[in-house]
Amino acid sequence: MAEEKLSFQAEVARVLDIVVHSLYSQKEIFLRELISNGSDACDKLRWQSITEPELIADDPEFRITLTPNKDAKTLTVADNGIGMNREDLIENLGTIARSGTGEFLKNLTGDSKKDISLIGQFGVGFYSAFMVADTVEVITRRAGDAHGWRWTSDGTGSFTVAEHENAPRGTTVTLHLKDGEEEFLEEFRLRHVVKTYSDHIAIPVLLKQGDEEPQTLNEASALWTRPRNEITDEQYKEFYHHVAHAFDEPWLTLHYKAEGAIEYTGLLYIPSQKPFDLFQPDRKQHVRLYVNRVFITDDCEGLVPAWLRFVRGVVDSPDLPLNVSREMLQHNPMLRKIQNGLVNKLLGELKKKAENEPEAYASFWETFGAVLKEGMYEDHERRDKLTDLLRFHTTHGDGLHSFADYASRMKEGQKHVYYITGDDRDAISQSPLLEGYRAKGVEVLLLTDPIDEFWVANMPTYKEFSLKSVAAGGADLKDIKKEESEDAKDEDQKADEAPKEDLDGLITVLKATLGERVKDVRPSDRLTESPVCLVAEEGDMPMHLERLLRAHQQKDSETPRVLEINPGHALIKHMAAKAKSGPSPELEDMGYLLLDQARIVEGEAPTDPVAFGKRLAKVMQLGVAPAGA
Ligand SMILES: Nc1ncnc2c1ncn2[C@@H]1O[C@H](COP(=O)(O)OP(=O)(O)OP(=O)(O)O)[C@@H](O)[C@H]1O
């Protein structure tokens, strides 16, 4: 087949450009990326060869070979792994099929410092070769295929693909080094880079120079199989970078061997930075599964639950069958046991961190708390353990607080754990809905992750206290005891409220005016400063949840809410006095404005923005008009 010239997908061209320009200070990572790809390719073939041994019969020893050629100024990275056919080549080295790429690109700022950390989360892979090479050639043959393929590109928008005679099994990547990158032809440099980044991948990395016998550069000992006391922090970190395709420091490294009903070794990491695809809808887990050092899959659904999908690393068990399909594996009861063990171990470690190193735990929480909370909704069995790990921002000052902290500060007579939900912490912490709670010194949890609406609805109680939204039903503040001095104030306030009959009159007018736009109008005991607020009737969908669903086009109608009015507010008192003479156009305008004001504070638009504008102008005009005008 003649050589074809194809264009990179637009996203690839952008990633290439960014990688080449912003990662240059760490350019040697290209070698780690290519070695990692070679190692993955060997892992894949090793697994496939269990059922199809003929695939590797002619060359059973997996390896990655680096060949520098000073005359040609090329560095070759060759593996004898699974290889690629024509479709694989075009798909893998011409597009970026990973979900979330578009999102990732949108987040890039053009400021290379910030972008480096984002790229680190994204994983640059193969394209990093263009940092040091002006042309890259890939010769590859898929195990079992008769024909090989040649791919070339200078990394500027297009690549070529052509059939290639006599390609060896696996993939050979030849980098035509740019001027000034000759250091990557030197033995000491290659040795150093391999030692630093790829010492403990399970496949040997060889250096082949001229006619000399190849030398092995790495330990090639599958790090997780070695005793913990023989492994340094640096080695753990290097291995994390390899398995996670990450650049950050691991926040937690957990290496242990489980023995008993099922035997397995886990080398697990929690990153310190959010991986770029953390909130992709597929919620894929990323721990790699090995059976006796044979890589099985990095996409094993039942291994780690979705709410721990930020965990990276390796699990290796001799107790799992080698020769089953990945799909069958997912239903294997042993796998379920491993999952149980992993989850318990991870939760145990998180608990220790939370108790002994609260500051470090807080940084974990800010990064992954929103994901861990999904477990509160999905894993009922573990809800109690997870409950102790939850942290919140609350109205009780800065920092993060646990349920136990909250409980220790509850007021006499308080029967609920109160919370408010919304998108933005600053906005909800100023919500009028909190006024009455603040006045009585009652703490309220400020919940701003979308998942919060779901788990709180699923968690009826913390100890004997039920969870209650401050935006739903009555405020239940009457039973909570105030500080002594506050009691007197309370009495004063009562005396200062609109008389009951006047208030009833106003409520009648407001109900008649607003009709079905509201579910009810009633006096509030939760407001101290604002004239009005909206709350959900007990049992109705929470207002913030409804907004979330509407934003995702999962709901189109709006549930009418209860308008609460503050009998102690001057505006309400004047309106109540005016209502004694029955309905009037001014009172009706004000009624609409009150509802719209409450909606705006909630983050909603006025019911009818044009009418809102007109009414507001009219009322403002009254305020500035000379007396008698
Ligand atoms: N040496 C190789 N042998 C076989 N397939 C390869 C090889 N190198 C790359 N590939 C294929 O190309 C794909 C893209 O590689 P690339 O390194 O860009 O990303 P990745 O390894 O999937 O992820 P990451 O960006 O996290 O490294 C790989 O997923 C793999 O399918």
UniProtKB/TrEMBL annotation:
SUPFAM superfamilies, alphabetized: ATPase domain of HSP90 chaperone/DNA topoisomerase II/histidine kinase, HSP90 C-terminal domain, Ribosomal protein S5 domain 2-like
Pfam family for this entry, one: HATPase_c_3
Domain Histidine kinase/HSP90-like ATPase: 26-181
GO molecular function: ATP binding; ATP hydrolysis activity; ATP-dependent protein folding chaperone; unfolded protein binding
Residue ranges with Basic and acidic residues bias: 491-502
Region annotation Disordered: where it falls in the sequence: 482-502
Stretches for region C: 548-629
Binding site for ATP: 33, 37, 79, 84, 92, 99-100, 121-126, 171, 326
One GO location term (cellular component): cytoplasm
Keywords: ATP-binding, Chaperone, Cytoplasm, Nucleotide-binding, Stress response
Region described as A: 1-326
InterPro entries: HATPase_C_sf, HATPase_dom, Heat_shock_protein_90_CS, HSP90_C, Hsp90_fam, Hsp90_N, Ribosomal_Su5_D2-typ_SF
Compartments it resides in: Cytoplasm
The family this protein is said to belong to: Belongs to the heat shock protein 90 family.
Function noted in UniProt: Molecular chaperone. Has ATPase activity.
Quaternary data: Homodimer.
PANTHER family in the record: HEAT SHOCK PROTEIN 90 FAMILY MEMBER
Name used for this protein in its record: Chaperone protein HtpG
Organism for this UniProt entry: Caenispirillum salinarum AK4
